[in-house]
Amino acid sequence: MSRVTNFQLTEEMINQFYREGYFYAPGFITAETVEAINNENALFANTLGDGQWKSHAIIDIAKEKATYPETTSFLTNQDVVRVFERILGDDVKLWMGMYAVVDPQGKGLEWHQDNQYTHILGHMLNGFIALDPITQENAGLWLAPGSHLMGRQPNLNTEEGHRRAAEPANGTPCNPMAPGDAVFFHRETLHHSKMNHTDKPRRAYAFQVGAANCRYAKTGKLLEDRIKLSGCQL
Questions:
Q1: What sign does the CA torsion over 88, 89, 95, 96 have?
Q2: Among 2, 147, 220, 233, which one has the highest count of C-beta atoms within 10 angstroms of its own C-beta?
Q3: Spatial distance between the Cα atoms of 155 and 151, rounded to a whole number of angstroms
Q4: What is the pLDDT of residue 105?
């Protein structure tokens, strides 16, 4: 893979992350990186699921490196990792990376926080990278500015599966995104996506990264089962 990112993070972007719970990162990854990630996930993207959002997750980078060399190379690229370190002010660990697809005419996800799943204490960021042109026509992302300040919200789903939060009053559609554009948001920022109204899959790459000092709420322990990206060499 050639150079992965030319993105320049600013202090105002970091300030907005903590103040509003998100910020945009236009051109976060290069066109070559977009193409490489899409190419090695093409079979997954083009295999129809059940008409909804679907993902292939990477947690154990060493285990997945042989099958997904370009994707794991992106996740461990130290230019990319330094962006995460500056935002979170610490060494960082990968929670997971996900090649995320909404099938043609498929449904997105309801309003939720990722911290409604495994409850983690400390600052974590989510990245959502467009691997196609993404608008509200093909399941574009929605965010609720400032919702991270409310803390972890109750899960309103009574069945196992995806979490659901109460719909916020200030839900806002994200700007149209070109391939390689990203939006970063806090793990407790409410977000969701609507339907893909097109006849093509909507492809994106999503990931979650935590400060190395984050802890599991249930046990109080550090995230010792997650790989440290800072200084990672595979």
A1: positive
A2: 147
A3: 13
A4: 93
